[in-house]
């Protein structure tokens, strides 16, 4: 492979991860699943003090870390939402219609 091939692969990977970042963030925001702060220039969304277990979600990859066990999970924002509901990290905000 030439250096141009590697450059093309790198650019494709960056584009793919940017797309995942936007999709995962919008999925979490639309669900009302708000993080307490960001780390590493937005590369990690930290959930602290909202319940246990504490978690770090990485929107560029769709992975998250259960900070109480150290286990890394994967599956994207929808899987993280399901996991966080199951483990008591997140209580969804109920959206009501107003007349």
Structure explained in plain terms:
This protein is an alpha+beta fold and 99 residues long. It has one domain (3-86). It has two helices and five strands. A five-stranded antiparallel β-sheet has the order 1-2-3-4-5. Helix 1 packs across helix 2 (76-86). It is elongated, with a radius of gyration of 16 Å. Mean pLDDT is 84; it is low at 93-99.
Sequence stretches where pLDDT stays below 50 over 5 or more residues? 93-99
Profile the largest sheet: 5 strands, antiparallel
Structural class: alpha+beta
> Whole-number radius of gyration?
16 Å
The number of helices is: 2
The backbone outline, from C-alpha atoms, is: elongated
**Tally of distinct domains:** 1
Outline of the structure:
By secondary structure, this protein is of the alpha+beta class. It has two helices and five strands.
List the helices and strands and how they pair.
Blueprint (H helix, E strand, L loop, with lengths): L2 H28 L6 E3 L4 E4 L7 E4 L4 E4 L5 E3 L1 H11 L13
Antiparallel strand pairs: 1-2, 2-3, 3-4, 4-5
């Amino acid at each position: 492979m030439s250096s141009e091939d590697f450059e093309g692969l790198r650019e494709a990977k960056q584009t793919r991860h940017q797309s995942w970042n936007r999709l995962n963030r919008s999925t979490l925001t639309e669900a009302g699943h708000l993080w307490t702060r960001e780390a590493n220039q937005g590369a990690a969304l930290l959930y602290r003090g909202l319940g246990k277990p504490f978690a770090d979600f990485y929107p560029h990859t769709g992975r998250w870390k259960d900070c109480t066990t150290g286990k890394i999970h994967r599956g994207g924002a929808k899987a993280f939402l399901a996991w966080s509901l199951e483990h008591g990290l997140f209580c969804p905000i109920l959206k009501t219609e107003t007349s």
